[in-house]
Amino acid sequence: MKISLSNLYVSLKGREVLADLSAFFESGKIHCIIGKNGSGKTTLLKAIMNLIPYEGGISLVSNEGVAINTQKLDAKALAKRIAFLPQNPITPEFVPVEKFVLFGRFPYIGFWGSYSREDTEIVADTLEKMRLSMLKNREVQDLSGGEFQRVCLARAIVQQASVLLLDEPSAALDPRQKTALLENLTSLANEGKTVLCVTHDEFLFSESQIQVWGMKNGNWVYQEKGGLPLSDIMEIVY
């Protein structure tokens, strides 16, 4: 599904954070939003997830052109369509990795409130594809920062949502892990998913296939790669 923003406005504690923001994030692509701290990037992700109040419109648009207003979806219905990886996810104690990732299947829990065999198979397959199977019995609080970040991404992926929102997904990752992250995100985009990242990491948004969106003071100052050198984009945005 694609994401459509129409004249989005957010004010928090009397401060205008997003101002008349409009955009159309195509499916099958990785979109990276870059900008200074406080420019409104994370606020945008929270608005898409209905975590904060806003004015204007946010819709999910199917390939057939059918638009769904996200404010009309309950939490479970929204989670089937959008997976969100926040910048600082909560680290639970005494929860094995496999069970933690299984929590991502919560939107699909049936009437009896238990996970199905299909849920556990999806988790096992995702851990295998992301080379995390060797961690499945480790407790989450014992993971390194990079390991925990990758496990959180796995939990988001098992939601099987068509939209993936990521806030600083490469934080705490070493260069090899960043390469694996980009491979995973590219694979998701190739499956037709819409991948939307907030990042300061040049490693992610310097790739030629990435759609770059520059934000400053709650609005766009740069859209699309347009052939500009990375140094020029950084000058505009930062």
Describe the protein in words.
The longest helix has 16 residues, at 175-190. Strand 4 and strand 5 (67-69) form a beta hairpin. This protein has eight helices and ten strands. The chain has a six-stranded mixed beta sheet, sandwiched between helices. The chain has a four-stranded antiparallel beta sheet with strand order 2-1-4-5, covered by helices on one side. It is α/β, with parallel strands linked by helices and 238 residues long.
Q: What topology does this entry show?
A:
Blueprint: E1 2-12, E2 15-25, E3 30-34, H1 41-48, E4 55-61, E5 67-69, H2 75-81, E6 82-85, H3 97-102, H4 117-129, H5 145-157, E7 163-167, H6 175-190, E8 194-198, H7 202-205, E9 211-216, E10 219-223, H8 230-237
Parallel strand pairs: 3-8, 3-9, 6-7, 7-8
Antiparallel strand pairs: 1-2, 1-4, 4-5, 9-10
